[in-house]
Amino acid sequence: MKKGIQVLGLLCVIATAATSCKKYLDLVPDNVPTLDHAFSNRLEAEKYLYTCYSFIPYDGHPDRNPGFSGGDEAWTYWPMLQDYFFLDPYQIARGAQNRANPYMNYWDGYDGKSLWQGIRVCNIFLENVDRVPDLQPYEKERWVAEAKFLKAYFHWYLFRMYGPIPIMDKNLPISASPEEVKVYRQPVDSVVNYISNLIDEAAAGNDQAGLPLRINSVTKESGRITKVAALGIKARLLVTAASPLFNGNNDFAGLKNNNGQVLFNAQYDPQKWVRAREACKAAIDKADAAGLKLYHFNPAIINVDHATQIEMNIRNAVCEKWNSELIWGLTHEGAPTWWLQTYACPQFDPNNFNIDLKAKLAPPLKIAEMFYTKNGVPISEDKTWDYDNRFELRTATAKDTGIQEGYKTVGLHFEREPRFYADLGFDGSKWFMRNGKYEIQSKSGQYSGKKQSRIYSVTGYYTKKLVNWNLVVSQISLTVESYPWPVMRLSDLYLLYAEALNESGNTTAALPYLNQIRERAGLKSVETSWSAYSNNPTKYLSADGLREIIRQERSVEMAFEGSRFWDLRRWKTAPQELSKPIFGWDILQSTYEDYNRKVLLYNPQFIAPRDYFWPIQENNIQVNPNLVQNTGW
Fold it and tell me: In the Cβ-directed half-sphere of 487, how many Cα atoms lie within 13 Å?
């Protein structure tokens, strides 16, 4: 594993651009980038703007985003000697985080990216863009808005990881005194207000000014910020700030600066949910103006049955490039999801084993249980579904969607909602690709199963949702159609809005947004499903009941997109959920009966309140004693 370069990001006061971004910033002959050169003309200034963008974390990579393997949505074999870039997220999932050399340390530098240095570069751009002589006013307006958003986004990324952080609105001058350099962390509410206000500045103006409403030239401007993306991230920020982790939380009452300043407001404020609701609605309105809509698969592309069409509604909402619901997609290195897809995909073709298909991103059994029944309610609530016998073997018939006819598997895999079959592969499941229909058979000795000490699913499940249907495999080649990683898509925004509506006293108004997502996934409305099939038919009528429904709906719809890792934290349900045992199937067995037995893989433990936030590296606190350490570290 190659660790990120450790730098004192926040304490760095040298007014230079990040040297890790040389491909975006021309260098003068002595290899020292100068501000005079960087802002001498439009072309060089645009390169510097790209340098600002280059600090965005690579969230579409399986080892660079803690949401993939740092929590409980995916597990893998251990120890891991190959097939990884960084072991950091796996170490976090196994409880090995530490303050001496923190894992995934974006504060100081992880994957070559210090977010404080990224903020510094944005500040340099904003301080010098007026010097560019040949920059058109409309371009300057847009570029300034982009730099402001990126500065806000880097603060937001750090805030979500570390909680209260310093605010770096202006760069410290080289002449700054040692005391000026020793900055303080700012209270949560101050940080949230700062980020929100900065995004407002970035998104200001009509649809023809500043940030564009949409990206019209994907080939030239893919991944750049729009008004919809900026407002969407603001909505996510304010929903997070209104959630239990930050709103009325007494767990961090003792977290104070050494000057006595309290960093967490322990008083619950219902107006934070009102503010979040308004931000979500503003983002949705802007998305409507930009023509965004929930993705639906076009059956004219290929002739498929109704069940497959619904499955592709779900899969391609993530995997189809620049589809109709993508709010902001990342395009790192031109292939932002290549590694993610190879980590997720099993050997699905019996005639073409390819070592590049790792199959290691393995969902645990509890994630398979999280999805609804075909009736759109939780498996433990559906009065028509055999919950008690869900681990008993059954034989599939031609009527059983998503399972190979005549194959035996557990009752858990029968009569489930379309997202279950779209998101997950398992022994006996079907795997639809553009070039054909395949069958997963992963017991010992079968083509999808474990053959060696690597390249297999440790649980027996596969993350089908993340694999683009255009992937083509042979024994000697692999073609992967990489798609932009969706930092945010429209269904995510709808779910945030539904949550904010419910928490702000508008329970009934939340239902249409849930139901649009459910309809796309082939399910009936919340009202119909719960009334007809749940053993708690009036659950959706109360704010408490609908909260539970919204959270599960979000967990299902956003599964394997890096959302659950953060949602469990902001909801303060992480100590319960992330301390549940990790189970899989007995993948070393060759018979139906032996394979379909639960096997305990690991007993994780989420220690609250410590594990809600990253530790600040202890060396930083020694250098700057005004930085107080997070609670529990």
Answer: 25
How is 351-370 classified by DSSP, letter by letter? T---TT-----B--HHHHHH
Residue 34 pLDDT > 80: no
Please, what's the b/e burial string for 19-35 (b: 16 or more CB within 10 A of its CB; e: otherwise)?
ebbeebbeeeeeeebee
State yes or no: cis peptide before 79, omega within 30 of 0: yes
What is the three-class DSSP state of 326? strand
pLDDT in tens, 326-349: 999 999 989 999 999 999 999 999
Q: Say which DSSP state 455 is in.
A: S
Burial track 298-317 (b if 16+ CB lie within 10 A, e otherwise): eeeeeeeeebbbbbbbbbbb
Distance from C-alpha of 121 to C-alpha of 311, rounded to nearest angstrom:
43
Question: Does 20 have pLDDT greater than 50?
Answer: no
C-beta of residue 463 within 8 angstroms of C-beta of residue 371: no
Phi-psi region of 328 (alpha: psi -120 to 50; beta: other; left: phi over 0): beta
DSSP secondary structure string for all residues of 335-354: -TTHHHHHHH-----TT---
User: How far apart, in whole angstroms, are the C-alpha atoms of residue 437 and residue 98?
Assistant: 46
- The answer to whether residues 525 and 534 touch, using CB atoms and an 8 Å cutoff, is no
54: nearest Cα among 135, 134, 133, 117? 117
Give the pLDDT confidence of 177-226 residue by residue, as tens digits. 988 899 999 999 999 999 999 999 999 999 989 999 999 888 889 999 99
Q: Please give the Cα distance from 530 to 536 (Å, whole number).
A: 7
Complete DSSP assignment for 54-77: TTS--TTSTTT-HHHHSSSS-B--
Does position 628 have pLDDT exceeding 50, yes or no?
Answer: yes
CA atoms within 13 A on the CB side of 228: 25
